Amino acid sequence: MTAAPNDAVADGSATTSPEDRVPLAQKIGYGLGSIHDMWGHWLYSGLAYQTFNIFLGVNPKWIGRALLFKLLFEAVSDSAFGWWSDNARTRFGRRRPFILAGALFAGVLLPAQFLARPGWTELQYFGFMVSTLALFVPAMSCFYMPFQSLGYEMTASYHERTLVQAFRSGLQKFPEVLNFAAAFFTTAGVWVAATWADVPGRLGTMFGQLTHWFGQMGGALVSFNMHEMGRLMTNLFGWAPATPDAHPNILVGAQVYTVLLGIMMVFAGILMFILTREPFYEKLIVARKQARIPITATLGQTLSFQPFRAVLSMALAYGIGTSMVGALGYYATVYYACHGDVSAGGMWNLYMGLTGMVLGLCGVPTYTFLSHRVGKKTAMIVVQISAIAVFVATWWLYTPAIEWLQIFASGLIAFTGAGFWILYGSMTADVIDADELQTGQRREGSFAACGSWILKFGMAIGNWASGEILGATGFDAKLGGNQTPHAIFMIRFLLAAIPIIGLLISLGLLSRFPLTLARMSEIRTQLESRRGKV
């Protein structure tokens, strides 16, 4: 009988052999790609509503419709770059050259999405959003399809795959905080009556305040002056929020913010290219001279594989349910908990991001450990039941009576979300091994493109629906903090109810996933007897 792989033992627990471990530098390098994921995929929808709806007065329905066009662009570009990277043969591998090029272009093009001007018609703003997305989306596909594929092929170990995804999820929490910080940054008092002509001076003022704040906070920490620390935290990082009757130039703030993030995206892409490697490329793709994969494999053949359909449909239900309320959480903060004070809402949004980072980081080792103990499928069941409980609790966590409670809504959602996406990525890597056993080909790019596009389709539908739902609640930006009780009630109710429905559907679909630790041990044994170890 052929020996079982080194990472599986008879009692169902696991150890990882040294040859299966991914070096720390490579895990960190791969995790840096979460910067582009967070800012390239998730920053836009929130910042677009804040900039185009709240500041420029564009109806949220137009923003939701622009996000539908984004989906159409991704349908083409994700499929093209997933297929292209599967078939690429270069001295640097089949993923890393695309990662480098995509990271550079995405970093440069990120600010272009907010280079609008006040005074346009709604149709002009809509055309601008669609046009800039048409440029930015292919750059992100060039980066993201090979990035996703690389994560699936960094190790052959059942549990080391979860650890690779855990590093990605852990490092993701830092750029995720800056997504939350966007509203705080763009509504800071420094942007009141701002123009691009005085941006350098205002940035100098902002960073001067930052230096002063750290000095004061350091003194308060040394003396353990809790009253002073509390006072300083209300003026976080020294970036004074605008007063309720002031009107910061959110558009200029968004432009400056995305320029700064774009620069960081460029440098992160270069580091990722330097640090990562492609172990499957030389040993399997080049050595075996794998035949070119037809572009039809990107959607049709991958979706025909039952384990992939099971894990993808589960993630789709989760993704649609949470994205449909993507805008509602921000509006619940500003217009319910903060009575329409946009600057206060931006400050609390940043606190929510920081809490999400802390609790999200706690979720990474928690669910990684749980997966090692009980397996990925059981761990995923725990994740989803926990998430249902969190969304039920949002009804009480968003309240003007105790504003700081809302930070736990964001934090606990991040805690369970970390577990979900770690396990989803690791389970998809197992699916690709099972597919190789059936087809004899490594098609990470095809699975990455299909999975990414289907999930983006669901989330784009969710984002579009989010705008439609917000409009249907009766919300009116012109009313400021004087929204009708019906609008506030519907925002709060739908914020909790819609994700719970998605999670219940996701739990039912999870039952169809067949790849357990024991089955993956069998698959690995058969693969290595056929084509050798990686």
Describe the protein.
The protein is mostly helical. It is about 75% helix and about 0% strand. Helix 5 (about 120-150) runs antiparallel to helix 17, helix 7 (about 200-225) packs antiparallel against helix 8 and helix 14 packs antiparallel against helix 15 (about 375-395).
Amount of helix: over 70%
Treating each run of at least 4 consecutive H or I residues as one helix, how many helices? 19
Order of helices and strands: HHHHHHHHHHHHHHHHHHH
Average pLDDT metric? 84
Roughly how many Å apart are the termini? 21 Å
The biggest sheet, with number of strands, parallel, antiparallel or mixed sense and barrel status, is: none
Please tally the β strands and state the result.
Answer: 0
Task: Label the overall shape.
Answer: globular
Structural class per helix/strand content? mainly alpha
Poorly predicted runs of 5 or more residues: 1-13
State Rg. Answer: 23 Å
Q: What amount of the residues lies in strands?
A: under 5%
Set out the fold topology.
Elements (H helix, E strand, L loop, with lengths): L23 H8 L2 H22 L4 H28 L8 H14 L12 H31 L5 H29 L12 H25 L2 H8 L16 H26 L3 H8 L13 H4 L2 H18 L2 H12 L4 H33 L1 H22 L8 H34 L4 H29 L12 H26 L6 H15 L3
